[in-house]
Design a protein that fits this description.
Blueprint: E1 5-11, H1 19-34, E2 42-44, H2 58-61, E3 63-64, H3 67-80, E4 83-85, E5 89-93, E6 96-104, E7 110-115, H4 125-128, E8 136-140, E9 143-147, H5 156-164, E10 169-173, H6 181-195, E11 198-202, E12 205-208, E13 211-214, E14 218-220, E15 226-229, E16 235-241, H7 244-252, H8 255-258, H9 261-264
Parallel strand pairs: 1-2, 2-4, 3-5, 9-10, 10-11
Antiparallel strand pairs: 1-16, 4-6, 5-6, 6-7, 8-9, 11-14, 12-13, 14-15
The structure holds 2-oxoglutaric acid.
2-oxoglutaric acid (AKG) binds near residues 120, 123 and 175.
GO molecular function, one term: hydrolase activity
Pfam families: CN_hydrolase
Family: Belongs to the carbon-nitrogen hydrolase superfamily. NIT1/NIT2 family.
């Protein structure tokens, strides 16, 4: 794993219900990000970027078995020698659909997969999607990492479990709308501070039905400082993270050694 690790976050406006348009736009944005100077080590994408929240038609729009997404991302990573956390897509699994993320290494190998385990009832996800049943752990060039998706950040026990399992970076692709910017910011910072790890989030921008997504993708260090933050426009945000800071912060305030799980588990 390169140190520092250079990350590019593609904060994109997704066209709900138009996977063709979204694929074409994503391909262009990925190409632009991978050929930037300096080149990123890792590119991070947002939630449900193939279909957006066209949930009433999701069965016909979702990517069967993720085949198209996986083939595209794998070839892209190989071509550019870059890793991709592919946000998430609507994936058709026979007759059901999941909100699923894939992670690829610089050789184009799939190194992680996760389907959102907490479905967001306020946007009717529970009526159209199936929840995942396992956690999002993977290793990025030997560095243990975790992923969750959007609403999952409201569940601190999930982030803690990933941290206890070794995660040093937590990835959060999202489609998080107004008026809950203060929840987004506070929850992301809290997950970083309490688990003393990097949090790398990628939100969308633009409108879909009654929702307006506000962007503000951000990278937060293990001390809780926001080291990069996007505005409310389409853009690619870049940041460099230094994983040695995880050990430094964990050494300064030994939260993990001071836990009393026998009293609260
Ligand atoms: O928890 C929230 O406020 C937003 C969650 C969300 O939009 C989602 O999970 O898709």
């Amino acid at each position: 794993m390169a140190t520092p690790l250079r990350i590019a976050i593609v904060q994109m406006n997704i066209e709900a219900g138009n996977p063709e348009a979204n694929f074409a736009k994503m391909a262009a944005k990925l190409e632009e990000a991978a050929t930037a100077n300096p080149k990123p080590d890792l590119i991070v994408l947002p939630e449900m970027w193939n279909t957006g929240y066209a949930l009433d038609r999701i069965q016909s729009l979702a990517d069967p078995d993720g085949t198209r997404t996986k083939a595209f991302m794998s070839a892209f990573c190989r071509k550019h020698g870059v890793s991709v956390h592919a946000g998430s897509i609507a994936r058709l699994n026979g007759t059901t659909v999941t909100n699923t993320t894939y992670i690829f290494d610089t050789q184009g190998e799939e190194i992680g997969q996760y389907s959102k385990i907490h479905l967001f009832q306020l946007m009717n996800e529970h009526l159209h999607l199936d929840a995942g049943e396992s956690l999002g752990r993977f290793e990025l060039g030997g560095v243990p990492a975790g992923t969750m998706i959007c609403y999952d950040i409201r569940f601190p026990e999930l982030a803690r479990k990933l941290a206890l399992d070794g995660a040093r970076i937590l990835f959060v692709p999202a489609e998080w709308p107004h008026p809950r910017l203060h929840h987004w910011r506070t929850l992301l910072q809290a997950r970083a501070i309490e688990n003393q790890m990097y949090v790398v989030s990628c939100n969308t921008v633009g409108e879909s039905g009654a929702s307006t997504f506000f962007g503000h993708s951000m990278v937060i260090d293990p001390w809780g400082e926001v080291i990069a933050e996007a505005e409310e426009v389409e853009m690619t945000l870049t940041a460099e993270i230094n994983l040695a800071l995880v050990d430094e912060v964990r050494g300064r305030i030994p939260v993990f050694a001071d836990r009393r799980p026998s009293l609260y588990q």
